[in-house]
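2024-03-11 09:14:02 DEBUG pipeline.ingest accepted 1 chain
2024-03-11 09:14:02 DEBUG pipeline.ingest length=433
2024-03-11 09:14:03 DEBUG pipeline.predict start
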Amino acid sequence: MELPSIRLRWAPLAIGLIAVTTVVPLELRIAQRWTTDFNLVDVLQNLLLFVPLGISLSRRPSHTILVAAFATSMTVETAQIWQFDRFPSIYDVAANVLGAFASARAARRYWKQPLCFLPYGHAVVPVAIVAALATLVVWRLPTQPSRIVDWDPEFSLLIGNEVTGDRPWVGTTRELRIWSTELGRQQVHAFDPADPRLQTSLLYIDSKQYESLGGPPRALPAPAGAHIVDAVTNTGKLSIAVTLVPKHTNQHGPARIVTFSRDPFSRNFDLGQEEDRIVFRVRTPVSGPNGQATRAETDAALEAGRSARVIATYDGGIARIYVDGKPRARANLAAAGCSIAAACDSALPSMWALLGAAIAVVILAVRRHWTVTQRAIVSIMASAIPVGAQHWIGLMPDGIQPPAWVPMCALLGSVAVALAYAPPSREERISAA
């Protein structure tokens, strides 16, 4: 069968691209302030991101382009206030508006083709197939495991310092608990130590209050350490809860609040303070023998003299830190083990959207005439293929378990293509006949 040329309108593709790369969250945190830091790479990325939107608006008046780009940019930047690993910035807004406006003016001046369409020839099908296969290949490249497998039971379980005495922490701790499971967000938010689900996996509890003055560490019972290693390596999961009051926020190292280690460079896990931030490190093959290669670190979460309940949890793939029940840090160790880390974490929404869009392009290319209803059916069919494949056989690396709604981004990608699809004009239909 001869595959016809098809055309796609720019606007739906541009909006879909912006949505899946900036708005769809993998996980939410507490609201953050806008940053004033300037990052050249980030600015360039934002310039390029809004180029398709600018092309789609190229026939509009200049003030319409500016208003539309500014409104879109403010919307996506505001949404990033609640997203891990994204930081809203006025520089990003300026870059977005500049990228849209400059591309619109350039397209109006230099592009002789109709600017509202992205024309495709007969190569559209192989290009779409290659894009889909490339996504799958990236996911199936060799990975490093993130499971807890190599902990040392001979390490010391300590509060307030290392055995070597060179990572002192000053403050008080109480209500230390350790489990061989992860704590979910709801469990953390409504934290109840008496919860039967937590009692079965509880490995260690110490309700005493300890004051650390910067001297030698307080060693916890050695049998407790061996029991923790056995249980945690069996489940591959870990959670730590402790209520603490730092004496001051000028502590570095990170200063050891709780550590299960031999020295400053060899540990099973530690929970420490770096100025006004909390640091959580877990030893795995991908994070290294000291857990430093991929660690979870909060923003400014501590105040001198103020009590804080800190819960650090690791589910075998992602390390998280909660302070007073609120999510403050996230580190995807499983994604760090992928050949391309972003492809297993921050870029997952856009990669799933690409899969859905590629399949929709292939289906749309086999016929010239589609009604709106048919296009809607095509979009659902196109997205169902990769979502079903993920459910039945798995497409992503072992240990990568995105939220359930992330694969549904395939639907967003296919819908964008369906909305962008431009049926042949009457003249084209007559010519083809």
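2024-03-11 09:14:41 DEBUG pipeline.report The CA atoms of residues 189 and 363 lie 46 Å apart.
2024-03-11 09:14:41 DEBUG pipeline.predict end
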